[in-house]
Amino acid sequence: MVVIIASSFTFLLLLIINIALVLATTSIAIFGAKDWCKDSCGNVSVPYPFGIGPDCFLNSWFEVSCNESSTPPTILKKINMEVFNFSYDLGYGREYLRVKSPVILHNCSGRERETKNQTVDLTGSPFFYSGRNKFIAAGCNNKALIARIKPRIVGCESTCNGDTLFGTSNPNKTCNGSTCCETIIPLYLQTFNASFESKTSSGPQGSKLAFVVDEEWLNFNITNPSDLLNMDSVLALIDWALPNGSTPLISSESVQTYVMYTSESSNISWRYVCSDGYRGNPYLPIGCQDIDECEEERHKISCGDATCVNVPGFYRCEGSKTWIIALGSLEKTKIFTSKELDKATNNFNNNRVVGQGGQGTVYKGMLADGRIVVVKKSIAMVVEEVEHFIIEVLILSQVNHRNVVKLLGCFLETEVPLLVYEFISNGTLFQYLHDKSEEFPLSWETRLRIAKETAEALWYLHSSASIPIYHRDIKSSNILLDEKFKAKVSDFGTSRSIHYTNIGF
C-alpha cells in the first residue's frame, strides 16, 4: 500500500513539474499566419493555426485543402475530413470544427453500407470528438454500441411499437429509449464505428442506425427523424489541441492557456483562448485585442449618469455616487424581455425542465443567437429570499472566472424573478460521486483536477475579485461540470461580499 501511494504521488509530482517546465518555455511566440495566406475558402473562414497553402498552417495536421466548387469547399487534408465551418463558440470560449460524421446503417433494404468503410479514425492526430456531441441510435429491438473502444462499453438500447424506424412521432425530439436512445460519448473519443445487436430474438428485426452528432444541429435541422435513413452523414463537432512540442504563445494578460492532460495516452496538449475582455485569434501575435465595452449600449446603460471608461480587459464607471465596476467579458449582465425568455424556453414548457428544488425551477433554453442557456425561475419569495436573489445578481455580475458559472442576464418585471445562466452540460459533481447508474465514473485524475479548479475559483473569489466574495455553501451539488468535466462553481444565493454586506445585506 505504501508503495502504491508513493508511486501515485511521484507520478503526480512529475506531471506537475513537467507542466511547469513547459510553461516556463512559453516566453517566445514563433508562429503565425503570413501576410500572403488566404483566410477563407468560398464562404468558409479558415483561421490560423489552420491554413491553406505552404507556410500558412501550424503543421501538417492543420493544413486545409480548398476546392470552392465542392460542398463543403474545405477538407482537413491529412485526415481527409470535410469541414463545414470553423465555429467559434462564445459560450465555451473556444473553436470547434463542424464536420461530416457518418450515419451507420444496419438491415436497411437498398441502403446498406459497409460499416468498415464508415469508420472514423483520428488516432495519433490532435483531433477528437467534442464532448458536446451525443451518440444516438434508433430502430426497433436495437442495441447499438460504439465499436473499437474496448475495454469500455458505450451504447444504448431502443425499441418501438410496430415496425417503423422511430415508432411514434416524438415532437420533443428527445431519445428516451422508446423511439430512439442517446448517451454521452467518452472523453477524447478518436475512433467511431457502431455495432448492432437485437435486444431479443423474438422482436422485430427492422432497420437500425447509429451516429455521433452535434445535438444542437440535430434538433434544429432534422424535422422528421426517419429522414436519417436517406442520409449518409450528419454534422458533428470536432475538438482539437496543440500537440506537446508545439511552441506556445507568449503568456500575456490577453491570452489564457488551457493545459489538457489525457490519462489514457499520457499526453499533454494545449489550447489558447482570448481572456475575458479581449476578442480575436489567440494563435496570432497580438491576436487578442481589447474590447471597448463603452461602445456597447448595455455598458453605457449600466453606468447610468456616470461616465463609462474603457481600460484593458474591463471597464469602469466614473463620476457616479455609487461605486460600480464590471469585469471585462464578451457577455455582461443583460436585462432580458419576457418575449425573449418565453421564446427561449417554449413558454416555460415542462419538457424544458432540467432541475427543480425548494427555490424554484430551472429550464433549458436557446436564445435567438443560438446560445444554449438555463433560466432559473424562482418561486414566490419572502423578503429574505429576495435578498438572496439580489445578492446573486450583484455578485455574479462582477465575477468573471473560467471556473465560476457565468450569469448572462436577468428579468425583473414580474413578481417572480428570473436569472439566465450559461448552460453547463454535464450536471453536478454530486451525481457523479453518488449516482451508481452513471456510465462514466470519475477517474482519480479527474477528481483531483476538479478539486484543483474549485480551489482556484474560491481563491479568485476570496483574493482576486474586485471585491472579496465568500461563497459559504460549497458542496458537490453546487459544483457543475461542463463537457470536459471542468468545474464551475454555482449557486451564490447565500454568499456574502464585504461591499454588499456594508450596504445593508
Automatic annotation (TrEMBL):
One of its GO terms (molecular function) is calcium ion binding. It catalyses: L-threonyl-[protein] + ATP = O-phospho-L-threonyl-[protein] + ADP + H(+); L-seryl-[protein] + ATP = O-phospho-L-seryl-[protein] + ADP + H(+). It is found in: Membrane. GO terms for cellular component: plasma membrane. One of its GO terms (biological process) is cell surface receptor signaling pathway. Residues 348-505 form the Protein kinase domain. Keywords: ATP-binding, Disulfide bond, Glycoprotein, Kinase, Membrane, Nucleotide-binding, Phosphoprotein, Serine/threonine-protein kinase, Signal, Transferase, Transmembrane, Transmembrane helix. It holds the Pfam family Pkinase. Its main location: membrane. SMART domains: S_TKc. Gene3D superfamilies: Laminin (2.10.25.10), Phosphorylase Kinase, domain 1 (3.30.200.20), Transferase(Phosphotransferase) domain 1 (1.10.510.10). Residues 1-24 form the signal peptide. It is a single-pass type I membrane protein. It comes from the Eukaryota. PANTHER family: WALL-ASSOCIATED RECEPTOR KINASE-LIKE 21 (PTHR27005), WALL-ASSOCIATED RECEPTOR KINASE-LIKE 8 (PTHR27005:SF280). This is Protein kinase domain-containing protein.
